[in-house]
Amino acid sequence: MRDIIQLLPDHVANQIAAGEVVQRPASVVKELLENAIDAKSSSITLVVKDAGKSLIQVIDNGIGMSVTDARLSFERHATSKIKAAEDLFNLHTKGFRGEALASIAAIAHVELKTRQEESEIGTHLIIEGSEVISQEPAVVPVGTTISVKNLFYNIPARRNFLKSDAVENRHIIDEFHRVALAHPNIKFQMIQNGNDVFNLPSSNLRQRLSHIFGRKTDEKLVPVSEETEILKVEGFILKPEYAKKSRGEQFFFVNNRFIRNSYLHHAVVSAFEGLIKTDTHPGYFLFLEVDPKSIDINIHPTKTEVKFDDDHSMYAIIRSAVKHSLGQFNIAPVLDFNRNKEFDTPYHYSDKTPVPPTIEVDRDFNPFKEKPASSSSGLASVFRRPEREKGGAWESLYTGLQSRGMETVDVIPEKEIESKTLFSAENKGMGRISSIQISNKYILIPTKGGTMIIHQNLAHQRVLYEEFLKNITVSQAISQRLLFPLELNFSTPDIEVLEKIKEQLENIGFVFSALTEESVEIDALPAMISEGQVYEILSRLIHEIKEDFPGDGFAQNDMLAKSMAESMAIKTGTPLGEEERENLIHQLFACKEPTLSPENKSVFYIMEREELDRKFV
Ligand code: ADP
Ligand code: MG
Q1: Cα angle for residues 218, 223, 229 (degrees, 5° grid)
Q2: For ligand 1, what atom is nearest to the CA of residue 62?
Q3: Given pLDDT bands bounded at 50, 70 and 90, which one contains residue 203?
Q4: Number of the ligand closest to the Cα of 82
Q5: How far does residue 121's CA lie from ligand 2's centre (Å)?
């Protein structure tokens, strides 16, 4: 009888194991970054070339390895992190299987340089396809640098199945984000094809989120914090209005390790129920801390799936922690009036045609003239509105809106709601709001219990911002076709920026007929922008984008809306007539969040009567 069973040679076994650990370049990135963290590094640099297909390098300043450990680290089941099976239930490190380096070395050209602090000389090791090519003493800094070149060079089938560079890069960046978010105190840098794409200083979580997702992230965050016997939850959720159509910023970390868990995900989603539209997804960055004994991370080789002993309680705790934070956030913006549900409606009009906000600024307005001049200049032409009879009656304030079909949108009855909730004592009947402007900057309105002081520029920014954001996301803005196409000249890098945001601009109402290397030709403009303003608005936008353009789509839209709102809002120093003030006030309180400007400054201040009284004692 012939024996047919053989033991697989090590390099073959390693190649097979590699298939489990290394699916794509991003898997290597994850393993190397985690090793660097386990090595107690305070600064980690990731270098990637050609989406990791030609080079993935991780440089750390951690504890390094001895000459022997350097060699051993590439053996299968070689780990310094667990000694016995029981240790598996008390894990405080990322790695423990001892197979990452062995697997990677089986399918790539690997170079390792490492030194421990106590040794003067380090070691330099080269391994190709599990075979040690050389190991020599070397003068290297304390810490470890591992370079992985030509991934899957000996498994063409896998190499051919890699996706485009764009897709593989996306996976790499996702891994980088996960690791960097879990360790905000560690400095991270990422260099992609020679470009410095992320430079994250040591910071706290809140700052790290802004460093990764863009400067404007901070104002979208709501903190979550809950501690119970079985679970501690810390982190942030994104305010409901930043829920996205596409799944995006959803991060769970358990004991500082990124995990996926659809059950716990559901706990968060259910806490947002009723606050976001059904087809949108909330954003969250939640850090769970549990006793390592109560989880089994070992159920999946790449360790993003985790099993918990008591996931029912975890579900309940997470859900209530998120609800609690949402509750606090919802109360915060309300000042001295009951937040009326009607005020929260504008974003639900996605199926209706959005109406651009109209603020009338009539420079020629003279209160002493019998009839105000009907021709207007300057800003008035920006907020153009069909000519109408100026009857002086309350209704006429809305004729501009109605002529655009606004009557089908039930936001109109607000004039009653507002007059009741905000201005009832002083504004009986028609809902007229008596207001005065001071310093061409503030609008003063007597309210029930005192005086409301509105900052006109910030108020208008809020109005425009919400309008733009809505237009960008539902892309139903109204365009006005130009008689002659408008040609504007920009530098080539500026044009490249414009190309990046072309789609969003089109959603707002821009129509581009040509985009050459140095000019754009515009056929139509958003209804609320005049030809004279376009250049200034686009230039500002380009400038801001060059300074800091967030990576993800939502943050981009948000930034566009803010920039345009800031460029176009009526400026401090602009005199406003009675109707303009009134229009602005109504539009402001039809906003989702009337209390804050897009940059989170207070839009208005209410001086209580008692406060006034105190001035006269
Ligand atoms: P694991 O992380 O599961 O232990 P790896 O194959 O990833 O297995 O690494 C094997 C061993 O090599 C680790 O246990 C550690 O002792 C050592 N090692 C790997 N990377 C580093 C590094 N960057 N700095 C110091 N030691 C490292
Ligand atoms: Mg490891």
Answers
A1: 155
A2: 24
A3: very high
A4: 1
A5: 24
Residue nearest to atom 23 of ligand 1 (CA): 36
Coil vs helix vs strand at 23: coil
Please tell me whether the overall predicted TM-score, pTM, comes out greater than 0.85 for this model. no
The residue with tokens 């520029």 is 457
Regarding the domain delimited by 10-202, which CATH topology (the fold level of the hierarchy) does it fall under? Heat Shock Protein 90 (3.30.565)
Q: Which helix (H) or strand (E) holds 126?
A: strand 122-128
CA of 93 to the centre of ligand 2 (A): 9
DSSP-based three-state secondary structure for 79: coil
Cβ distance 551 to 214 under 8 Å? yes
Owner of token pair 């002081």: 453
User: Which residue has tokens 């024996």?
Assistant: 3
Residues contacting ligand 1 via CB (< 6 Å): 31, 35-36, 39, 60, 62-65, 73, 78-81, 95-102, 144
Nearest CA to ligand 1 atom 7: 100
206-328: CATH architecture = 2-Layer Sandwich (3.30)
Would strands 604-608 and 519-526 be described as parallel, antiparallel, or unpaired? unpaired
Ligand 2 centroid from CA 36, angstroms: 8
Kindly state the helix (H) or strand (E) to which residue 578 belongs, with its residue range: helix 578-589
Atom of ligand 1 nearest to the CA of 102: 6
What does each C-alpha distance from 302 to 17, 102, 175 come to in angstroms? Answer: 12, 15, 12
Strands of the sheet containing 442-447, edge to edge, are: 436-438, 442-447, 450-455, 604-608
Mean pLDDT (whole number) for 486-511: 86
How far is Cα 556 from Cα 554, in angstroms, rounded to an integer? Answer: 5
Backbone angles phi, psi at 310, to 5 degrees: -125, 70
What local confidence, expressed as pLDDT, does residue 215 receive? 79
318: nearest Cα among 356, 285, 278, 363: 285
C-alpha to C-alpha distance for 271 and 251, rounded to whole angstroms: 16
Residue 498 CA to residue 511 CA, distance in Å, equals 13
Which of the pair, 376 or 501, is modelled with greater confidence?
501
Looking at the CA of 144, name the nearest ligand: 1
Between strands 122-128 and 195-200, the pairing is unpaired
**Which CATH architecture best describes the domain 436-606?**
2-Layer Sandwich (3.30)
Q: Which residue ranges make up each domain of the chain?
A: 10-202, 206-328, 436-606
Instruction: Find all residues with CB under 8 Å of 3, minimum gap 6, and list them.
Output: none
Q: Cα(212) to centroid of ligand 1, in Å? A: 27
Nearest listed ligand to the Cα of residue 104: 1
Among 95, 103, 102, which Cα is nearest to 297's?
95
Q: How far is the CA of 73 from the centre of ligand 1 (A)?
A: 6
Residue 302: band (very low, low, confident or very high) from pLDDT cuts 50, 70, 90: low
* 3-state SS, residue 342: helix
Which alpha helices (H) appear in 113-258, and where do they start and end? Answer: 156-161, 165-182, 205-213
**Cα–Cα distance for residue pair 278/272, rounded to 1 Å:** 10
216 in Cβ contact with 600 (< 8 Å): no
Nearest to 601 by CA among 470, 469, 449, 454: 454
Q: How far is the CA of 349 from the centre of ligand 2 (A)?
A: 50
Calculate mean pLDDT across residues 190-214. Answer: 92
Mean pLDDT of the chain: 79
What pLDDT is attached to residue 91?
Answer: 66
